[in-house]
Amino acid sequence: MKNIKIFFSLIFICSISLSSIAQIEEGKVTYKMEMPDLDPSMASMFGDTKLTMLFNDENVKMDMNMGMMQTNTFIDIESGETVVLMDLMGQKMKIVMGQEDMKAEQMDEKDYEIVKTGEMEKIADYECEKLIIKTKDMDMTVFVSYDIKSFGSLNNQFTKLEGFPMKYESVQSGMKLSIEATSVEVMKISDDEFVIPDGYKEMSMDELEMMGR
Questions:
Q1: Which pTM does this prediction carry?
Q2: What b/e sequence results for 19-30 when a residue is b if at least 16 CB atoms lie within 10 Å of its CB, and e otherwise?
Q3: Of the N and C termini of the chain, which has fewer Cβ atoms inside 10 Å?
C-alpha cells in the first residue's frame, strides 16, 4: 500500500528533527503536515495529519494520526533503538529498528550539499533561516532555528545539518510534502508516555514492504 511507503519516508525525514530535539531538555513540539498533491482517495486515508513530538533527555516519542492509520514512534536516545507501532484499521504492527538500521539511512557527507540562503522566516515564534539540501535525487528546503540548542546523533539523516529544523518542504515521487512546527512548549513529560504498549505483532521491514506491493 502506498500509504505505508509514504509513512516510512516521513519517519526518515522526521528523524532529522527527532535527533536534534532529543538533545534539548524536555517538552513538546507540534507539527502540521500537508500533502497537497495527494489524489482524493489517498487524501481520505491520510485525513488531517498532525505530528506531536514529546521528548526528554532519554527518550523521544512521535505520535502521528493519518486518518485511517495511527502511528507511535519511540526512540531510545542512548541505544538508538527505534520502535514504530502502526494501527492500520485495527491491524496492529510493530517494527523494531536498531542503531545500525537507522545509521544506514544516513547519507554520505560527500553525496549532498547544504546551501545557506540567508532568507529568514518566523515559525512558531522562532526566527528561522532557509537552507537548501541538495542531493542527486532531490532538493529539500529546511528552515532551521539557531535559537534552539541542537546536537547531531546517529539517527540524523544529514549529519552536516546545523540548527534545529522547524519546517521541511520536499517533493518525493512527484508528491509535494510540507511539515511545519506550529508550537514549541517547554514542559514536564511523564515517563509513562515512553512506555511501549503490548498488543502489536512484530514484523520485519521486508514483511512490511511485501504488504506495500
A1: 0.76
A2: bbbbbbeebbbe
A3: C
- Collapsing DSSP to helix, strand or coil, 55 comes out as strand
Distances (CA, A) of 41 to 3, 85, 171: 11, 24, 19
Which range of 25-29, 59-63, 126-130 scores highest in mean pLDDT? It is 126-130
Grid cell listed for 109: 557527507
Work out the widest C-alpha separation in the chain, in whole angstroms.
48
* 140 has a pLDDT exceeding 90: no
Q: Is 77 helix (H, G, I), strand (E, B) or coil?
A: coil
| Domain range summary for the chain, segments of one domain joined by + | 2-183
Topology, domain 2-183: outer membrane lipoprotein receptor (LolB), chain A (2.50.20)
